[in-house]
């Protein structure tokens, strides 16, 4: 059976199948080797995700999933006294919720590679320009400094749990001008270039999990391998 790679997360995951999205890149990359399955829920924090994780994956096969990415934290890191306070999750609970989500995934798919992804950085100027819910306070309802705390907590959970981690918060900030090259005008969601960078990091993590294109077999014979004078034998089970 063709293996599946499941993407579980908030809007940064839900939007990933859009044009130039990291999930779309991933689906194209594995087009003959694996199915990329989207489970993205815009606006969700880990509190909500931990409650619905089992339901979200209930229809997926138990045996075919080879890897799952988990990307939450951008909403959890909303400031508790600003416009999107309803999404805020305290840091200790965020870590507990991540552990609970990963426990559900590992119970469902014991042999699958679970890859945690930190929330990306935040450009506060963009959050002020595009305020949540029409907020007129002139203050960002998320900051990069606070989001960084959640990113570090995600890294900590991954290391403690023996899981792979993509620290996209740190990775993006290694590039000058990351605020506008990797993030859209809202200072939160990813540009095509930001999506490309995250896609590349996911491919590296999957390769580390022994799920590269060089390892996974192509689904059904390649056209170039088929002898047109005796094609039938290539399609017999």
Automatic annotation (TrEMBL):
It comes from Lolium multiflorum. Belongs to the 'GDSL' lipolytic enzyme family. Residues 7-197 form the SGNH hydrolase-type esterase domain. Keywords: Hydrolase. GO terms for molecular function: hydrolase activity. SUPFAM superfamilies: SGNH hydrolase. InterPro entries: Iah1-like, SGNH_hydro, SGNH_hydro_sf. Gene3D superfamilies: SGNH hydrolase. This is SGNH hydrolase-type esterase domain-containing protein.
């Amino acid at each position: 059976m063709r293996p599946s790679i499941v993407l579980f997360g908030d809007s940064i995951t839900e939007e990933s199948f859009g044009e130039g999205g990291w999930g779309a890149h991933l689906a194209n990359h594995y087009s003959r080797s694996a199915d990329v399955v989207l489970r993205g829920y815009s606006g969700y924090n880990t509190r909500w995700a931990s409650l619905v994780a089992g339901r979200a994956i209930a229809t997926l096969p138990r045996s075919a999933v080879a890897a799952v990415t988990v990307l939450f934290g951008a909403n959890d890191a909303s400031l508790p006294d600003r416009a999107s306070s309803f999404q805020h999750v305290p840091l200790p609970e965020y870590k507990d919720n991540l552990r609970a989500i990963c426990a559900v995934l590992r119970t469902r798919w014991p042999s699958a590679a679970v890859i945690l992804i930190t929330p990306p950085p935040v450009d506060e100027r963009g959050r002020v320009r595009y305020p949540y819910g029409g907020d007129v306070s002139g203050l960002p309802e998320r900051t990069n400094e606070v989001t960084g705390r959640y990113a570090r907590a995600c890294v900590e959970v991954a290391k403690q749990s023996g899981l792979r981690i993509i620290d996209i918060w740190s990775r993006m900030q290694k590039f000058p001008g990351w605020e506008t090259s990797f993030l859209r005008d809202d200072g939160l969601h990813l540009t095509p270039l930001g999506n490309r960078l995250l896609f590349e990091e996911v491919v590296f993590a999957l390769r580390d999990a022994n799920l590269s294109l060089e390892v996974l077999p192509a689904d059904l014979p390649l056209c170039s391998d088929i002898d047109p004078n005796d094609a039938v034998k290539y399609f017999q089970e």
